[in-house]
């Protein structure tokens, strides 16, 4: 559906954001295929796009699809000048004294402008309209405190449009490695049936931590709930079904007893087909949980051993599924120290041009790192 009418300027009062018809949905995702199709064919990618609108995170208005167009033209006969997705996130906040409250943030994803319509200011207009709408979008019972995105075009473009880049863009990387006697590692593999309780345990610990240790700053964290994890898992399962005809059973690994556990949740991402273009294929650690945050030196040595087994399990999983790297986002100081204590080879990398965590703040203060601490900037929050 290519519009042949004269295009309006980006400043035109006739431009607005709206949601697509089913026909316009197909055009939007067909346009985005070369950017985000990964290892899928176009028909598979279009099927996946519909499928992902019905997983829990996206269901019931959790995901919204927007595009910039001319409001004077009828549906299915109007140009798709620029488009994006937003996701509603359950978000915890604590004030300078550690008082906990709950709200929502909206993630912005898949910002895309038709190549024929670029350099006309349409992306800037879309983002300006979106920023205005998101302040109150779906904020019925809870306040919307901000919008996040992960920029793949560096820090400048989105910063100029109100999304401030945060210094939270480091990651630990490991190479895949088949581990002899991997079944003897001191871990239990996590399966989907385990996830609900682990998420509840994680949330309880987050609530306690955010109220126990005030820092003098506002603190914000997207809740690593089951819906977020399942969005990544369902996406992985869809792709693996198409590529391999089977799905990964293991969703992560856990070790230790209650109150002394460490666990990770992971997902398999195929940016290219493993037989033809495998270089970027990644096992992402979606979430890391360390229950005992104040361990003494003897306990810390025990945690180093726990983490060693978990990292080896992740390397083994990546090798078995023909992935080329393992990536763990935003390792805090405690996690960095524990990982350093293992004998597992790894590297720490700073992301400079892709997946740059950026925040548009709707609450009090500047919304920059001098007033807001963004906790848990891990891969689970990326969509």
Strand content: 25-35%
By oligomeric state, this entry counts as single chain
Query: What kind of sheet is the major sheet?
Result: 9 strands, mixed
| Number of helices in the DSSP assignment | 8
Q: How many β-strand runs?
A: 16
What form results from the Cα inertia axes? Answer: globular
Considering DSSP H and I runs of 4 or more, what fraction of the residues is helical?
Answer: 25-40%
* Uncertain segments: none
Radius of gyration: 21 Å
Structural class: alpha+beta
Care to describe what's here?
The protein is an alpha+beta fold and 383 residues long. The chain has eight helices and 16 strands. It has helices at residues 22-36, 42-52, 122-134, 156-160, 192-212, 226-244, 297-320, 333-341; strands at 15-18, 63-70, 82-94, 100-112, 144-151, 164-165, 170-174, 188-190, 218-222, 252-255, 262-269, 282-290, 325-329, 347-350, 356-361, 372-375. Strand 12, helix 7 (297-320) and strand 13 form a beta-alpha-beta unit. Helix 1 packs across helix 2 and helix 7 packs across helix 8 (333-341). The longest helix is centred in the C-terminal third of the chain and has 24 residues, at 297-320. The protein starts with 14 loop residues before the first strand and ends in an 8-residue tail after the last strand.
Keywords for this entry:
383 residues, alpha+beta
Fold blueprint:
Layout: E1 15-18, H1 22-36, H2 42-52, E2 63-70, E3 82-94, E4 100-112, H3 122-134, E5 144-151, H4 156-160, E6 164-165, E7 170-174, E8 188-190, H5 192-212, E9 218-222, H6 226-244, E10 252-255, E11 262-269, E12 282-290, H7 297-320, E13 325-329, H8 333-341, E14 347-350, E15 356-361, E16 372-375
Parallel strand pairs: 4-5, 9-16, 12-13
Antiparallel strand pairs: 1-2, 2-3, 3-4, 3-9, 5-15, 6-15, 7-13, 7-14, 8-10, 10-11, 11-12
